[in-house]
Amino acid sequence: MPSFQMSAALLVLLAMLLGGSNAQLSPTFYGSRCPNVTSIVRGVLERAVQSDVRAGAHIIRAHFHDCMVNGCDGSLLLDDDAANSIDSEKNEVPNQSIDYSVVDDIKTALENSCPGVVSCADILALASQIGVSLAGGPNWQVPLGRRDSRTANRAAVLGAIPSPFDNLGQQQSKFRDAGLDDSTDLVALSGAHTFGRARCATFSNRIGTDPNLDPTFSNVLAQVCQGGNNALTNLDSSTPDDFDNNYYTNLQNNRGLLQTDQDLFSSTGASTVAIVNSFAGSQTEFFDAFVQSMIKMGNLSPLTGTNGEIRTNCRRIN
Ligand code: HEM
After folding, report:
1. Does any ligand 1 atom lie closer than 6 A to the CB of residue 197?
2. Which residues are catalytic?
3. Residues 79 and 128 in one domain
4. Is the CB of 90 under 6 A from ligand 1?
5. How many domains does the chain have?
6. CA 303 – CA 220 distance, rounded (Å)
7. Are residues 154 and 242 in the same domain?
8. What pLDDT shows up at residue 2?
9. 51: how many CB neighbours lie within 10 A of its CB?
């Protein structure tokens, strides 16, 4: 082959390789560099769930809140750091009630086995899957290869993360802005509220006032919230710690906890209603859609290739 053709072919190959490494996450990304990544994460998370059943719920919520702001780049996990101009996303209201300690424990275990290899953004994605499956939910292969940001974007948090007081249109536009769809992704991912807890501050405004809140359930919530704004109750009142499709049957029975949950079913004529009904009728359909939407969410603007870094401590840039 003449040398100019050879260099052209090499350039094409190089472009494909570079382009590919930027676009593509893969379940086998760590390969021999950290062959036990999944079992290490599972081991730490199993122990965490034994002492706090909410550990998996905290992680998947953190993954969602991370991906919604500048993509799935671990930016959420950075603490305040004036010297490096980091104004932590954790300080904004939606992020204040997340427990980040399990992420630290997972990172420590991974640094012991494969130092400097596994990103904090990937820890969130992988531990989310494991947390779901430990609670009885679906298994799936998690695409990996995200790198960690060297910046945070606190100013973007409130505009990006849905508030429990948003109406359906506002929830939908936040999903669209992130690159998710406002029907199937919204309904499927909201199904993560099949486990975990919420504070009274996020739903007590509905008690005794919301026509789409079952009166008996409303009375139960009124009792709980005598404990104040920080009193906790189950997001899924029927099977609180199981990852199943009862979240959707609750909505059909006006037993959604957050107004944003209930709106998916109670907004007459909305595209979300039929999807709630089909997930309520088939756990398999819910699980299949949930897996697809989780993979889609995990693919939101990851840093790959030589962008960002692999943090050694998820709370600080290197
Ligand atoms: C669609 C709009 C959503 C809204 C408005 C919303 C809102 C909330 C609120 C207000 C809480 C309770 C927080 C507190 O008491 O401080 C909560 C908890 C939770 N959220 Fe969401 N969320 C949404 C979507 C999601 C998604 C997409 C996921 C994951 C894929 C998720 C996972 C969770 C989990 C697991 C908890 C329980 C956490 C715990 O036990 O500490 N949420 N959410």
Report:
1. yes
2. 65
3. yes
4. no
5. 2
6. 45
7. no
8. 47
9. 7
